[in-house]
Specification:
Pathway: Lipid metabolism; fatty acid biosynthesis. With 374 residues, the chain is an alpha/beta fold. The protein has one domain: 3-Layer(aba) Sandwich (Peroxisomal Thiolase, Chain A, domain 1). The chain has eleven helices and 13 strands. Strands 1-7-6-4-5 form a five-stranded mixed β-sheet, with helices on both faces. A four-stranded mixed β-sheet has the order 8-13-12-11, sandwiched between helices. Strand 4, helix 4 and strand 5 form a beta-alpha-beta unit. The chain is globular and about 55 Å long. The protein binds oxa(dethia)-CoA. Oxa(dethia)-CoA (UT7) binds next to helix 2, helix 6 and helix 7.
């Protein structure tokens, strides 16, 4: 059987850093509340688009794998913050890296998009459709964040990472996965104002508001990820004692602690980035994976558990067997253009743009209750 090994990895984190103190300059919040409820101290704010971050991460992952972009057969772009709906974002990355023979797919399952993309690429490699794939997890949330809503504005950040997945004779890469969706809870997380349902409804593009039932998402996320983790371990015939490292979705430190301990794994086996980056949606798992490799926490042959959840509510858990190589084959000079603004400058620019959009839209968004029937 053909397997799909992860042979390259690379992250691209925008440099501007938004602290809890920065947030409390325009929101009724404070460092103590944010740290005690979420474990977050800071997050990044991007000065470039999602596809620009994705391009740099993809170039770094390809250099790490020693693979020429011309040999890439497939790009899967996992995200819910695409630059545009048409054309898709994967095609933008394809053009930017010169992957001239690649098929290019956008995949949106919100925060689980990277892991669902990894499943897609793995399945296409196993069936022989493609041999070499780039799988991206990227999110540029700051432009559509509802910055006046403290329930959500403190939780999210921007970022990106990519992996290269290649056909292999060895039993490496995704050993198994459990995928699902708790669609009865899909009303708990909705971004109003993005998508065709809002066109011709008196809405100005760029005006977004979030429906967000934090405590309900919290409960469903913990139960869903624990069930998915136990299911994938049972499918693959392994126990919690066999897990070397957990690389979970990083939405909240308390969620991670609940999931990992209920899955039977000690917290010292968990890779955490939530304190420094917050919830980067699709980017959390690949960024944490790339940093675990940089820090030497992934040993040759390691068994890695990756549980995640996101809007939908999509839920999943993957078991990955790492290969022999834990160091990059090469590097690249590719980097983002320099940024001259502070994170607060960038956010305040977005906030004033949104205020203008709201004035133009009036109460339009809040009146769009028809969306709830979907
Ligand atoms: O990737 C998927 C994305 N979704 C998630 O990850 C959400 C999962 N949920 C959570 O992480 C948690 O539910 C939150 C961090 C969102 C909230 O924590 P909580 O312990 O469930 O708090 P809560 O919602 O019960 O809020 C408690 C209080 C409320 O005040 P009252 O009504 O008790 O007076 C909130 O208004 O905290 C207030 N609050 C805040 N206070 C200061 C909510 N946000 C803030 C804030 N700063 N930023």
């Amino acid at each position: 059987m053909t397997h799909a090994a992860i042979t390259g990895w690379g992250k691209c984190m925008p440099p501007a850093t938004l602290t809890n103190a920065d947030l409390s300059t325009f929101l009724d919040t404070n460092d103590e509340w944010i740290v005690s409820r979420t474990g977050m101290k800071e997050r990044r704010v991007s000065h470039v688009t999602a596809s620009e971050m994705a391009t740099i991460a993809a170039k770094r992952a390809l250099a790490c794998a020693g693979l020429d972009a011309k040999d890439v057969d497939l790009i899967v772009y996992g995200s819910c913050s695409n630059d545009e709906q048409v054309p898709n974002s994967a095609s933008g990355v394809q053009a930017a890296i010169g992957a001239t023979k690649a098929a290019s797919i956008d995949l949106n399952t919100a925060c689980t998009s990277f892991l669902y993309s990894l499943s897609t690429a793995t399945a296409m490699i196993r069936t022989g459709v493609v041999k070499n794939a780039v799988v991206i997890g990227v999110e540029w949330i700051s432009p559509f964040m509802d910055w006046e809503n403290r329930n959500v504005a403190v939780l999210f950040g921007d970022g990106c990472a990519a992996v290269v997945v290649q056909a292999s004779d060895k039993q490496e890469g995704v050993l198994g996965e459990q995928l699902g969706c708790l669609a009865d809870a899909r009303q708990t997380l909705r971004v109003r104002g993005m998508g065709t349902a809002y066109v011709n409804r008196g809405i100005t593009m760029g005006d977004t508001e979030w429906d967000f039932d934090g405590p309900e998402i919290f409960k469903r996320a913990v139960t869903g990820m624990v069930q998915a983790s136990h299911a994938v371990m049972a499918k693959c015939g392994v126990t919690a004692d066999d897990i070397d490292l957990v690389v979970p979705h990083q939405a909240n430190l308390r969620i991670i602690e609940a999931v990992v301990t209920r899955s039977g794994v000690p917290m010292d086996k968990v890779m955490l980035t939530v304190e420094r980056y917050g919830n980067m949606s699709a980017a959390t798992v690949p960024v944490a994976l790339a940093e675990a490799l940089e820090e030497g926490r992934v040993k040759p042959g390691a068994l890695i558990l990756m549980p995640a959840f996101g809007a939908g509510l999509t839920v999943c858990a993957h078991l990955v067997r790492w290969g022999d190589r834990v160091t990059p084959l090469g590097t690249t000079d590719a980097d983002l253009p320099a940024n001259k603004k502070t994170a607060l400058d960038i956010i305040n620019g977005i906030r004033s743009g949104k205020t203008n959009a709201k004035e133009r839209s009036g109460e339009g968004l809040r009146n769009l209750r028809f969306i709830e029937a979907l």
